[in-house]
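User: Structure with uridine 5'-triphosphate, tokens only please.
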Amino acid sequence: MPAKVRKAVFPAAGLGTRFLPATKAQPKEMLPLVDKPIIQYGVEEAIHSGIQNIIMVTGRGKSAIEDHFDVSFELENMLESRGKKELLNIVRAVSDMIDVSYIRQKEALGLGHAVLRARELVGPEPFACVLADDVIDAETPCLRQLLDIYEFFNAPVLAVMEVPKESISAYGVVDAEPISHNGCKDRVFRIRDLVEKPNANEAPSNLAIIGRYVLTPEIFHSISNVQPGSGSEIQLTDALRHLLRSRPIYAYRFEGKRYDAGDKLGFLKATVEFALRRHDLGKDFREYLRTLEY
Ligand code: UTP
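Assistant:
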């Protein structure tokens, strides 16, 4: 039986330069999609996937994330004294959600480096890694889908999606062979190689790695062994490539829709679609959109 995945690492120490000036004094992870910070979507997905502990890797200027998942006595007292029971419940639900630990990445030296910072807190067990910028709407939470594959193959699994050729160079890309699983031949792949941000003409496939991973603790050794790569950062993709020499790694083309909320256009799409789906807002918002001339 593969060891159970109990912990999820959330690297959240990036600088968020694509959202400047909004991210000058606040973390991009706290930008709201409608009324919920980006990072809370990821935390809820992890909880719904069975994760029990969250480890956030944060950096300078990220204290709002810690405050968000902590108890806010002043706010709770104020809501209670004003009889705002519904809002009080919403606020309490966030701090009651799950145990969160924090570790700092002092300098944004890359995603691989951020994951390595969590080594002591993860310990010798498999763990999930969630990049909260990728907000995924799915019937079965994307991380749960990956955990099911991990439990079957007892090996690391990366979430991938098909991406058009013109945008492939923004991603880590896998060279992978399809594997039959549960009667399906186009969801599970055994990875042959991986490359971070290839030129469109050199990309080994159209399968891009997105921000959900199930990893085993050997990845820490691999991260320690890779040199800075694309963008002079220590890349998780390069560490996975190193790990691939000693053990199989799988890719899973997940079911669901992914929004890149770390990018302005992706953030806007998620905002509009999530608002349209809301019971309290959807109808009025749809009517408003219809009145726009574009
Ligand atoms: P991004 O590539 O989106 O970079 O990081 P970024 O710095 O957050 O944003 P931009 O590109 O400047 O706008 C992908 C994920 O890896 C984390 C980020 O927080 C994000 O979740 N990350 C990246 C770190 O935790 N540390 C790093 O050194 C780099």
